[in-house]
Every structure is written in C-alpha cells, then in structure tokens.
Amino acid sequence: MATARADAPAVATRGFSGTQGFARGSRARHGLRSTDADNATLPATEARTRDRVLQMVLERGPVSAADLAKRLGHTPTAVRRHLDGLLAEDLIEVKLVRSPGTRAGRPARQFVLSRAGQASLGDDYLGIARIALRELARIGGEEAVDRFIGDRVDDLGRRLAPAVEAAGEDIADRVRALGSALADQGFAGSSTTVDAGPMTVMQLCQGHCPVQELAAEFPRFCERETEMFAGLLGVDVRRLSTLAAGGHICNTHVPTGRAAVRVTHR
Predict the structure, then answer these.
(1) Is the separation of the CB atoms in 155 and 211 below 8 Å?
(2) pLDDT in tens, 215-242
(3) Which of 23, 36, 208, 211 shows its CA 20 to 30 Å from the CA of 185?
(4) Is-above-0.85 flag for pTM?
C-alpha cells in the first residue's frame, strides 16, 4: 500500500521577481484572512482561530478537519464550525480524496483553497500585467513573451539554487530543500514522499502561485518553471497538476532513483 509523508512548509511573500505587486492584497501572515465582514461578527479569539484554519488549509490542503484539529490544538467540532464559515465565504472548497493505493470505501472529505481563496491572496496588478504581456506579444511576438517569462523564472531559479545545492547529491534531500525554498519565496511549497511498492518517488507541491491567473492565459510560465525544477534537481520531472489549469495545487512528480546532476545558474 502506498504511503505519503508531507514535510511541513513555511509561508512567505516573495514569488517571481517583478511580480511581488500581485501579493499586495495579501492578508494575515501571507496576509490571508477571512473577510472583515465575517470576522466582525466573531469574538477576536474566534476570528484569529478562523484565520489560522484558513492559513493551515493554504499550507496543508488537501487536509481533513481531523488533521486540522490535531495541528491547531482545537476540537474537531470547533474546527468544523470554522470550516463551515469559510465554505460559506467561498474561500475554501471540499475535495473527495481517496488514500493512495486504496480503491474501496468512501473517499475522505478534505479541504483546499477555492479559486476565490487563491484570488484573495492578492492580484492588485493582475490586470495591468495581463495588458502588458498582451502588448509585448503584439509588438515583439511570442518569442518576446517567452524571453520575458524565461527571465522571470530564471531569476527565481537563481534564488532557489543555493538551498538546493546545499542539500547535497541525494535527490530526496534536494526535493525537500526545494520545497522549503519555494515556501520561503511565497509559494506555500512542500514535498511529499510517496512509497509505491519497489519505487519511491516524491511530489513537489505549491499551494500558492503569485502569477496563477497570468499563467492560465500564458501557460509558458508553468512550462518554464517545470524546466527550471528539472535543472535544479538534475532529473526529469513531470507536472501532474497546476493551479493555473484548475488544480487545487501545483504538483510536480519527481523520480528519486538516480544521482543528481549539478546545474550552474548564471
């Protein structure tokens, strides 16, 4: 039976160079909070708890109510009350998730950020950025857009590289380091080890993307980022899902069966 272990992510607010403005509407620590109108009806401690539940869904989703209660030190009943409130605000949604390697039984109810919840992380400059990229495509063609996107992703890669290189040659260690580095850059990054019989693979997850809506229109963002991950890790990787394409996370499949190849970022 397959088992999974998720390494704890951190959250920050950096992201792609030149796109920090997209996060200026962020709330709380990421700055993610439930709406002021909803929190106005709650005692201060209850409002803080609801924000913590929402933050944990961002960092850990898909995550169950029981797991949230355990991590936050609250009763499942209290956590479900806040989850119901966040569902009513359309900041989170329910995913039915079946445990890896199992087919029988009912899928478990788990929670992830909704599209509205992702949007609440901030997109103040989304409209002008979309217009600028369209104008760049009109003037310089797709090659100009590709160069622009490549420069942004390469810059992110240079900022991620030191942490990955410091992890050594082991692929699993490099993936964990990359997940933590992505978290530090504002992507709610994490890594999960999946044991499936004789093979062990890892999944690199991102719970937030500061250019999600742009990447939906310009998928080259996701393609170049995947290429950058492969270069940093020294193995071929495969994207299983992206936020831009409607997934609840960006999920990258990483094989861990061979040695890493060092890549120098200029």
Answers:
(1) no
(2) 999 999 999 999 999 999 999 999 999 9
(3) 36
(4) no
Q: What are phi and psi of 229, to 5 degrees?
A: -60, -45
Give residue for tokens 């788990």: 110
Query: What burial class does residue 203 get, using C-beta atoms within 10 Å of its C-beta: 0-12 exposed, 13-18 middle, 19+ buried?
Result: buried
The domains of the chain are located at 27-119, 126-255
| Residue listed under structure tokens 């850059």 | 185
Architecture in CATH for domain 126-255: 2-Layer Sandwich (3.30)
**Domain 27-119 and domain 126-255 have a common topology:** no
Query: Burial letters for 66-97: b for 16+ Cβ neighbours within 10 Å, e otherwise?
Result: ebbbebbebeeebbbbbbebbeebebbbeeeb
200: β partners? 195
pLDDT digits (tens, 9 = 90+) for 45-74: 778 888 888 888 887 778 889 999 998 999
User: Which CATH class name applies to 27-119?
Assistant: mainly alpha
